[in-house]
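EI: anyone free to look at a 254-residue chain?
SC: sure, send it
EI:
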Amino acid sequence: MLLKNPKRDEKQLCLKGAVQINHSSFFVYEDKDGRKFLKTGGDEKLHKSIVQKMINLNPHIARILRRFHIKPLIDTKTLNELTCGHMNETCNIAIGVYSLLSGDIKERVNPASLKEASMLHDLGKVLIPSKILNKPAKLNVKERKIMNIHSTLGYELLKTQGVKPEVLNLIKYHHQNLQHSGYPVLPAENTSSDLGVQIISIADKYSALRESRVYRRRLSRTEALLILYREVREGKIMPAVYNALFKYAEMYDN
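SC: here you go
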């Protein structure tokens, strides 16, 4: 991995994934010569250019935005905040949960894919209108439908970039659950019981609950765990995954 600034010809760059170094997240870019570069979420000009390139490469993204009457505006400020905050923290929690699973369960998960997907899971929010992302109140039905397409948008943005199919699948379905009542709808040949999806989903939810949001206060560790335990009782979350999160929270979340 070459830790240097890429040439400013963004047309020649592809977003290949993400890595975490010393608990900080970086986007991995590759140029036309196959050289890789690391960039934080703070280079808004670069990220805006790359996201626009992704949109141009995948006409399905424009169709999704038109269907929901969303203007194709790229919110790179939100992307920077997510990279430095929620997506990075979700990655920390997901890897922590994975590390506390029993050995036979761990064998069902690719930790490299889990780590990369958790760092990229909310990339699609770069196309969600900020008035919905930052609304200081409960979303109405229409706004909730728009918010819920962020995982599909993240998948569509990244699938032209050479990101591994396993990582793309984790990103697309990180809001699914064992009852298949999440989003987007699962195809018949797929399953939301995929352990990686379960880990990212619970890490994402726990991170969000433990953060202050414009519409609510930061919840305590106990409050967050109780909310997620209800989903275990409803059959939406695997008990083994919840138990690993519980141990992680006791050990590391102060």
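EI: Strands lie at 14-21, 24-30, 36-39.
SC: 👍
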